[in-house]
Design brief:
The protein is mainly beta. It has 10 helices and 43 strands.
């Protein structure tokens, strides 16, 4: 998320200073580099990148001072300051770690150069000078402030900040033996990127090692950057293929010797998805998922011996969700445990009673406590107030399209108390200071632009009333265009939806309908946030052109409606979600102002897959489809995602066949546009060719647009976005003409 502006009024009569914090909403193809905003350790001030420097603001007075000036960010011999993409501050708050000159790895820029600004001496120091440019990853200053560790070319290094001496802690790293970071599938599906942790005493580092040497290589082809084609290999475990081996080791800084943790189970049939040092014991806590991801175990491991023991276990008939907080596209996003009670407890999420709830889990064998109670889902943790025995978290018991801040006692014996203002109906977010004194409160809904204010958390009062969100709503709100509704299908399934009607809508006329779909467990599309109802691929305004634009969330989408809703799709992707969408569309066809001959559907990635399935399985409903970056055969996608939601194909191949669009391609009757990037490392281009073969076999005519070397987001290269948008718009207008009739 990018901080653009923030409103605050300092003095009523003298002047009003406006600073808006607006957050850019990104699709799952996008990425963001969080790091332009950091709280101080005491929670009473924050740091922000401004005017090519870093400024500190003290609350609630809002007095400011330059922490690092533009001049101090300018390396010796250069006339330009470092362009800071991300920064972090050491435990003693005497050093600032700066990330610059970054390069994209898979989804986001995780490689680059790291510098340290010493706040005491004012000196600027580059890390890893002898290593290749822009090769450092996930640099972290040790807790004692004397060392820095980082990954380069899949090896782990440590550097003495006083002498700049670099020491390799691992030397066996290759393209397939990965130390301190992860392979493609761990990053994509478990959101694991930063693969090492400093010990609290700064004497050792725990790290993951991925052995992908037996993972089969998928080859992409670059035909445009040279007169001879170039092969691009990627270690990519397809559905049904054996996963890469994974293990955790602890390496001592002094002698660079690694002790491997002994975690029971075949390393190629289990995943290690979390690992942290336990603050109060110097031991490790490691979470293991079995390959089917329906069994989770927590191990406590001894770093010196590697001996481990199970302290908690959980099973599910479908899959066990991994709780994660924050934006998965932030560079500092990490799947951390939520420590409590000086490391003797963690807060744990589980759906074992049918709802996603928060539990207080003891690492000492004491009975767990259910904290959040009731028929609602815990969404995200905001803050733990251990002194007052309270936990602040996001939930939305009454509306699955929204989220609000609540608090409740940690002992689970109290009631749920709403903290977010009742007057602000929509989606709330909170970035709470380390001590819980203040929080950045963000809010938006479908007709209110994203805005932020700093509040006192305990009473949710803005520190400046005149600069609050509520006081400035008139500046933020737009004309309401999106209508939220519920629809019940013939199967008795009630679904949330949103709709944007044509401008100057006339109920006596019939209009074309365009459905926007995703429909899989990866994401929900019906959310009360700003930007809902807009089509970023359409040039112009769909409402002005005379389209009804609709999106619906079916069973299986990750809406806070209980585990039965979410997990009903298990082993039935391409079946249950498709039927729900089609049955809802049938109800919409009953509306008098809908033209049944102009029904279109489009989606990207999982939504592209859904588009194909809807066009093929229900050709009598959907007349036009635009499918972008779709999976045509479920066996071509990665094993972590597909096996989590579908099971192992060795055990239920029939479900994979029934869920794959290629199975039904022979049924195509309407107009279909297929779009895919040939350099897509996520949903491989082979999916387009598999689909084309099936359509050709049955003489099904369609249109096809490949984008050479473009990845899953199809945004690289000059003119790409404009071309895609033009193609999308022209095709829709041609085959699903707009306007009322």
């Amino acid at each position: 998320m990018h901080i653009i502006t923030l409103i605050f009024s300092f003095k009523k009569k003298l002047k009003t200073i406006f600073f808006f914090i607006l957050f850019v909403l990104l699709s799952f193809q996008g990425s963001s580099q969080s790091g332009g905003f950091k709280w101080s350790k005491d929670g009473h001030s924050y740091y922000s990148v401004q005017n090519e420097g870093i400024v500190q603001y003290t609350l609630p007075s809002y007095t400011s001072k330059v922490l690092i000036s533009k001049k101090q960010l300018t390396p010796a011999g250069s006339d330009k300051p470092l362009a800071v993409s991300y920064f972090n501050i050491s435990e003693d708050e005497q050093k600032v770690l700066l990330f610059t000159n970054t390069k994209r790895v898979w989804r986001i820029n995780t490689k680059g150069d790291y510098w340290i600004s010493n706040l005491v001496t004012g000196q600027l120091q580059q890390l890893g000078k002898t290593l290749p440019e822009s090769s450092l990853m996930f640099a972290k200053i040790s807790p004692d402030g004397k060392l820095a560790a980082y990954v380069s070319d899949n090896n782990l290094y440590v550097e003495n900040l006083s002498t700049s001496k670099i020491k390799a802690l691992t030397t066996d790293g290759t393209t397939t033996l990965i130390n301190g970071t992860f392979d493609w599938v761990y990053e994509e599906e478990f959101f694991c990127r930063d693969g090492f942790r400093w010990s609290p005493d700064s004497k050792s580092i725990a790290y993951w090692q991925i052995d992908a040497s037996d993972t089969k290589t998928f080859y992409m082809i670059n035909n445009t950057d040279s007169i001879y084609s170039q092969i691009i290999p990627i270690e990519y475990p397809k559905t049904g293929e054996t996963p890469s081996a994974c293990k955790v080791g602890v390496v001592t800084v002094d002698d660079a010797k690694t002790t491997w943790m002994s975690i029971p189970g075949d390393a190629r049939q289990n995943y290690l998805v979390r690992m942290e040092f336990i603050p109060s014991t110097e031991k490790l806590l490691i979470q293991q998922l079995n390959r089917k991801q329906n069994q989770s175990k927590l191990f406590m491991a001894e770093p010196n011996s590697g001996v481990s023991k199970v302290i908690y276990e959980e099973k599910d008939d479908a899959w066990v969700d991994i709780y994660r907080t924050g934006n998965k596209y932030d560079i500092d996003f990490t799947n951390n445990f939520i420590w409590h009670n000086d490391g003797k407890n963690i807060l744990w999420t589980s759906e074992k009673d049918g709802w996603r709830h928060l539990y207080n889990l003891s690492l000492e064998g004491k009975e767990e406590q259910l904290i959040t109670k009731g028929h609602y889902d815990f969404i995200d943790l905001s803050y733990i107030d251990s002194k007052k025995g309270l936990v602040y978290f996001l939930a939305s018991p009454d509306n699955a399209t929204q989220s609000y801040l609540y608090k409740t006692p940690l002992n689970g014996k109290g009631s749920l108390e709403l903290m977010s203002p009742k007057s602000l109906q929509g989606t709330h977010g909170y970035n709470v200071s380390p001590t819980g004194a203040f929080a950045v409160h963000t809010f938006s809904n479908h007709f209110t632009k994203p805005a932020s204010e700093i509040i006192s958390l305990a009473n949710h009062k803005p520190i400046n009333t005149e600069g609050s969100i509520e006081a400035n709503l008139s500046m933020l709100q737009e004309t309401k265009k999106v209508e939220f509704f519920k629809i019940t299908t013939a199967d008795g399934v009630e679904m949330d939806g949103w709709m944007v009607k044509p401008t100057n809508f006339d109920a006596s006329k019939k209009y074309p309908v365009v459905f926007y779909v995703y429909s899989e467990p990866g994401t929900a599309t019906v959310k009360d946030t700003y930007g809902t109802g807009r089509n970023r691929n359409y040039m112009g305004d769909m409402a002005d052109d005379g389209y009804i634009y609709i999106s619906l969330d079916n069973r299986g989408t990750p809406a806070p409606k209980g585990s039965a809703w979410r997990k009903s799709i298990y082993s039935k992707i391409g079946q249950i979600n498709i039927r729900d969408q089609a049955m809802a569309a049938k109800e919409i066809l009953k509306w008098n102002f809908v033209d049944p001959e102009r029904m279109a559907v489009w989606g990207w990635s999982g939504g592209g897959t859904t588009t194909l399935n809807l066009m093929f399985q229900y050709p009598e409903i959907y007349k036009t489809g635009i499918s972008v970056a779709a999976i045509s055969n479920l066996l071509t996608y990665d094993n972590v995602y597909q096996e989590r939601y579908m099971g192992l194909p060795q055990e239920n191949m029939e479900d994979y066949v029934k869920g794959s669009p290629a199975t039904y391609a022979k049924n195509l009757q309407g107009n279909l546009l297929v779009i895919h990037g040939t350099g897509d490392d996520n949903v491989h281009y082979q999916n387009a060719e598999i689909l084309i073969n099936e359509l050709v076999k049955y003489n099904k005519q369609f249109q096809f647009m490949p984008y050479p070397n473009r990845t899953h987001g199809i945004r690289e290269g000059e003119g790409t976005t404009k071309h895609l948008n033009t193609l999308f718009t022209n095709y829709l207008k041609m085959y699903c003409p707009p306007g009322g009739r």
